[in-house]
Amino acid sequence: MDSTYTNVIEALIFSSDDSLSSEDIISSIRGIDGEDVEITKEDIDIVIDELNKKYEEQNIAFKIKRIANGYIFATTSEFAKYIGYLSSERAKRRLSQAALETLSIIAYKQPITKPEVETIRGVNSDYMLTTLLEKNLITIKGRAETVGRPLLYATTDEFLKYFGINSISDLPKPRELEEIMQDEDFLEQKRKIMMATLEEKLEESISKSNHENQD
């Protein structure tokens, strides 16, 4: 592959708001320079590794991550807590505890049916499944070969992007989850989220009360 395409690949990933696949990169290059351009996914992977090495050597605050079978610029982990504090995007689409619980079950047990999810949770999951489908975090993968042929649910690429992982195999193992749950930073972040949720509910309650008084 022509070395001049290193900058092209970097620019394409930088300009994309979403995870950019190698197919999209190749299509963009060939769409401009012709279908005879010799470039493969392996070439792109090599370029990504070279760019990340350069960023690391120059102590740059970001790198190119492989997420959902594509590439995207992201800040390095040492700055995560600052970015997390500043960013409001995740808060806008924050998942409730019940939704996270349902999503976790699907992620670790997929493909899984609604009755199986409800057996594990112990409660009806109609609303949670609908919410996760609307957010495109899960999808219907078919039907189970059991009585009634219930629908099978599985996670989507949007799920991978939401949690910043490249594949389901990158999910923490149960033992790792236990360690994370006891981590001081995690507990502090959990406390802040709970306080923010309480404040939101309090504001909603005050607003509703004021509205009723006006009526």
Structure description:
This protein has 215 residues and is mostly helical. It folds into three domains: 78 residues, Arc Repressor Mutant, subunit A (Orthogonal Bundle); 75 residues, Winged helix-like DNA-binding domain superfamily/Winged helix DNA-binding domain (Arc Repressor Mutant, subunit A, Orthogonal Bundle), CATH 1.10.10; 43 residues. 60% of the residues lie in helices and 12% in strands. Strand 4 and strand 5 form a beta hairpin. Helix 6 packs across helix 8.
Strand and helix map with partners:
Blueprint: H1 5-15, H2 22-33, H3 41-57, E1 62-67, E2 70-75, H4 80-86, H5 89-92, H6 97-109, E3 112-113, H7 114-121, H8 126-134, E4 138-143, E5 151-155, H9 157-163, H10 174-182, H11 184-214
Helix pairs in contact: 6-8
Question: What key attributes describe this structure?
Answer:
single chain; 215 residues; Arc Repressor Mutant, subunit A
Percent of residues in β-strands:
5-15%
Order of helices and strands: HHHEEHHHEHHEEHHH
SS elements, strand count: 5
CATH superfamily of the largest domain: Winged helix-like DNA-binding domain superfamily/Winged helix DNA-binding domain
The share of residues in helices is: 55-70%
Short description:
The chain has eleven helices and five strands; from the N terminus they run αααββαααβααββααα. By secondary structure, the chain is mainly alpha-helical.
